[in-house]
Amino acid sequence: DIVMTQSPDSLAVSLGERATINCKSSQSVSSNNKSYLTWYQQKPGQPPKLLIYWASTRESGVPDRFSGSGSGTDFTLTISSLQAEDVAVYYCHQCYSIPFTFGPGTKVDI
Amino acid sequence: EVQLVQSGAEVKKPGESLKISCEGSGYNFPSYSIAWVRQMPGKGLEWMGIIYPGDSDARYSPSFQGQVTISADKSINTAYLHWSSLKASDTAMYFCAKHKVAVATSSPFDSWGQGTLVTVSS
Predict the structure, then answer these.
(1) Which among A96, A99, A102 has the least Cβ separation from residue B44?
(2) CB pair distance less than 8 Å for A99 and B60
(3) Which residues contact B47 (CB under 8 A, 6 or more apart)?
(4) Which residues of A touch B46 (CB under 8 A)?
(5) Mean pLDDT, chain B cut into blocks of 10 residues (122 residues total)
């Protein structure tokens, strides 16, 4: 199985400041110039929401303060200017090989 | 509008069976795989398995293989998650999620059900 790790476990960022979350996979999740790495946002009491897929493609309707980067085994989610509504847990996820696996999550607070 | 609507919360006793459902609408249900994801209380997300409703081909995480059965009925646009004998450790929220890319197995999930809370207690 591909093991996904995230760092930090949690972070507190001031409103308007940048938040950076790292995700590492135990083996490459990239192939043929495509990275099978997804970022989800989950707020309390809600299902997860798709933010970024193929490592850097923003889902329709997602604010452009959210961006993703990386390839191979190392990936990053950046929130360029944190807003109050961004308080949530963020998960990375690989859909490269079955069993698809999630990272443990990073809690973002103000 | 794409929607996944899951069946309601369940309270069961250990050893009982259970089948929960996930009905899709607003898209061509047979062509997009459905995944099931577990979230235990206060914990993270765990991928359980997927099913392609077009041919009912199901794949499982080794952690859940033999513990649950994933099925689908494309005639009524519904996927299912079934337990034959529940344990207390099955207490969790269960989400279904639709693959973003038609037919493809390797795809992110672009729509999620609201979740079904399963409580198993004697």
Answers:
(1) A102
(2) yes
(3) A93, A99, A100, A101, A102, B35, B37, B61
(4) 102
(5) 97 98 97 97 97 96 97 98 98 97 89 98 96
